[in-house]
Design a protein that fits this description.
The chain has about 450 residues and is of the alpha/beta class. It has 17 helices and 14 strands. Strand 7 (about 200) and strand 8 (about 205) form a beta hairpin.
């Protein structure tokens, strides 16, 4: 029977995906301590989640008004710890939970990313995943020593090379390259460790790589590109894809189109899992959940949306009046998350939306409270999406940390298990086991790359 996948959406910072979450009375504020993240890991593992995943950016939101003061004053995702280091703390407190973190293909070097994540995979006994992202705004460029941000599609062209280099390095060691025979003095078979010698338009890397293969072969690749170019990138490389479908019908159509794109790349669509973002608000009863949702709705501020829109679209929303339409040139020049721009145009029906339209049409900074209820009501909604083939699972974003995850694990997971939709226990030890993916075989990525 097809089984649902669950991912905990995390950020190594002072709030969740929602800037307002730190204001929630049930959110812990000791986010600079390891135990904060370890408790989240223990909760997710108790709920048999596939993995906890850390989103990341390389700058705080300071595009709005070209200033960071409002970001600090309102706590708008202003603290950003290193997600991989944070994950190691979570790994130490868990034994089965998958561990995913973001690393940029725009400003990092592929050898470093390959070594970092393969080491995490070994140290966690095969539970690591790399979320492949292209950085998107001028703040990140400035922090990483660049005068300007690369153009949208060029970032993905570089990312294609970047992933090829990383996968090539992860393939350097054959599974039986290590011998470790003290009697003969032979440490390994040198003919089973290979140099990459990659040279492309953007990147080059020689090798040989310095980290052997892990229990799951290599880390899982995650991607969340939602523009046209981003979707093509996901279809080519990703094994787990994060999306934000807005209703079941839209989800069914997008899901089917994406799986077809995966097949067109010469890959098995069943081996690429799609999880859509949601923020379930749950409690023992519907009435209690509705009270919780009412509190959550009061937390976001207008400045949250304006700051996060400026960051994501790489456009200073302070430069326009609230009801001033964007010009054609401004719309075409957006180089950040173009999917947000396109979603606002679709939602509003306006070719030239206003700042206010962007706030309402994007929902940026505000939880989408369309799954509110007791165990049955929330499980009904999740089951509807899952059985309609609108997704393979869900990225659960909490509006309070860690309370939101604890509520979901306490109230909804048992109902999903009772219905046979979700595992009652882990049946394997690696993240690939949880996702129903085979162990990565040596060289298994090359045929699908050639098919692209």
């Amino acid at each position: 029977m097809r089984q649902m996948h669950l991912v905990g959406f995390l950020q190594a910072q002072n709030c969740t995906i929602y800037a307002s979450s730190w204001r929630h009375p049930d959110s812990r504020t000791d986010f600079l301590r390891a135990d904060f993240f370890q408790e989240i890991g223990r909760i997710l593992e108790a709920g048999k989640f596939d993995l906890g995943f850390f989103d990341d950016r390389l700058s705080m939101p300071d595009r709005y008004g070209a200033d960071h003061v409002h970001t600090i004053e309102h706590g708008i995702r202003c603290v950003k710890l290193d997600p991989v280091v944070t994950l190691t703390m979570m790994a130490a407190a868990t034994s089965r939970l998958g561990l995913g973190a973001t690393a940029s293909t725009t400003y990092y070097e592929p050898f470093h990313v390959a070594r970092c994540f393969q080491t995490l995979d070994l140290m966690s006994d095969g539970r690591a995943a790399w979320n492949v992202v292209t950085s998107l705004n001028d703040g990140e460029a400035a922090n990483m020593g660049h005068a300007e941000m690369m153009a949208h599609d060029a970032r993905y062209d570089r990312a294609d090379e970047f992933v090829e280099v990383v996968l090539g390095h992860w393939d350097a060691w054959e599974d039986d390259a290590l011998i470790l025979d003290k009697a003969s003095g032979r440490f390994g078979d040198g003919h089973k460790v290979h140099r990459l010698d990659f040279r492309g338009q953007y990147l080059s890397s020689r090798g040989p790589f310095t980290v052997p293969r892990s229990p799951q072969g290599r880390p899982v690749l995650i991607q969340a590109g939602s523009s046209g170019r981003g979707k093509r990138f996901s279809a080519r490389w990703a094994e787990l894809v994060f999306v934000a479908y807005h209703d079941v019908q839209d989800g069914r159509e997008e899901y089917a189109a994406f799986k077809a794109a995966v097949a067109a790349e010469g890959r098995d669509p069943e081996q690429v899992k799609v999880a859509t973002l949601c923020t379930p608000v749950c409690a023992a009863t519907r009435a209690e959940a509705e009270d919780k949702a009412a509190l959550i709705e009061r937390l976001p501020l207008e400045i949250d949306a304006l700051s996060l829109l400026s960051e994501a679209l790489n456009f200073d929303f302070a430069s326009k009046g609230m009801d001033e339409p964007f010009s054609d040139a401004e719309m075409a020049g957006i180089q950040g998350l173009q999917a947000i721009r396109d979603r606002v145009v679709k939602a509003t029906g306006k070719r030239n939306p206003t700042v206010r339209d962007f706030i309402t049409g994007s929902g940026r900074g505000r939880p989408r409270l369309d799954m509110v209820g007791g165990p049955k009501e929330v499980a009904d909604r999740l089951e509807e999406w899952f059985e309609a083939r609108a997704c393979d699972g869900f990225v659960i974003a909490a509006a309070a940390v860690p309370a939101g995850y604890a509520d979901f694990v306490t109230h909804v997971v048992p109902e999903l298990q009772r219905r046979g939709l979700f595992r009652k226990d882990y049946t394997g030890s690696t993240l690939r086991d949880h996702l129903g993916l085979p162990r990565a075989a040596h060289g298994d990525w090359r045929p699908r790359h050639a098919a692209g």
